[in-house]
Design a protein that fits this description.
The protein has about 210 residues and is mostly helical. The protein is about 60% helix and about 0% strand. The protein is elongated and about 50 Å long.
Length: about 210
């Protein structure tokens, strides 16, 4: 089954089991999740974009690429860039140390990007969260948008919480337990990622996602 066919199956499943998402699917059309193989770039950009709007993160990302003639700096190049240079393009000291720690994990083999896509979710989570600056939220974003895992429920994402509160008439922002209960009640499993995509889509804003690692 192709990825596009899996998305179609996910949409049918969610439409059948969740009236609220059925309306969202009808309104917004097909889910546009698209996995890719630039896993290293996805992780670096994920760290860069933490707690920023998509617009602000994109501007800083272009400056990161400019450090290497418009291309993604290799891990070897990234660890050699002076921290103050990273600061000058908009990264905080913390984020500068995080992206360089990620590069070191790849260089010394603690994080093997060639095989990470073949690992089960729990192992991916374990390997990623061993890197400074990558917590549960960042790992969820990577598995969802980078690897195209369809069974990820980003319980720490503010956008997901806001959308869930709005769409399902909740009195307050749901915590992890409440989101998991909402998912169970409406039979999102095993397509939590697709449900999340429609929740984000329903916000109709600039796609802010804020990590809660």
């Amino acid at each position: 089954m192709t990825f596009a066919e899996k998305l179609q199956s996910a949409q049918k499943h969610l439409s059948k089991n969740d009236r609220t998402l059925a309306k969202a699917i009808k309104t917004y059309g097909d889910c546009q999740l698209r996995p890719h193989k630039d896993h290293y770039g996805e992780l670096v950009s994920g760290i860069v974009g933490q707690q920023l709007s998509i617009k602000a993160a994109a501007a800083i990302w272009q400056r990161v690429l400019a450090l290497s003639d418009g291309k993604m700096p290799t891990p070897q190049q990234l660890v050699k860039i002076d921290v103050e240079t990273l600061r000058s393009i908009g990264l905080s000291y913390a984020k500068a140390s995080y992206v360089q720690d990620l590069a070191l994990h790849i260089i010394d083999g603690r994080l093997d990007m060639d095989y990470i896509a073949k690992l089960p979710n729990k192992e991916i989570m374990s390997q990623l969260t061993a890197v400074k600056g990558i917590g549960e939220w960042s790992a969820h974003m990577f598995m969802l948008f980078g690897l195209g895992r369809l069974d990820i429920l980003p319980v720490g994402d503010l956008g997901i919480k806001k959308a869930a509160m709005n769409l399902y008439g909740l009195k307050e922002l749901p915590d992890r337990i409440a989101l998991e209960a909402l998912s169970s009640k409406n039979s999102w499993k095993p397509y939590e990622s697709v449900a999340a995509w429609y929740l984000w889509k329903s916000l109709e804003n600039d796609g802010i996602r804020i990590k809660k690692d």
